[in-house]
Amino acid sequence: MYTAVPQTLPAGRRRAKRGRLAMITSLNETDWIVVDDAVMGGRSRGHLSPADEGLVFHGTLNTRGGGFTSVRSRGLRGTLVDASGLIVKLHGDGRRYALDLRRLARGAGREAVWRAPLPTVQGREIEVVVPFDDFVPTWRGRRIELQGGPHAFWRTAGSVGITLADGVDGPFRLLLKGVDGVHAGGG
Question: What average pLDDT does range 34-60 have in this prediction?
Answer without folding.
Answer: 94
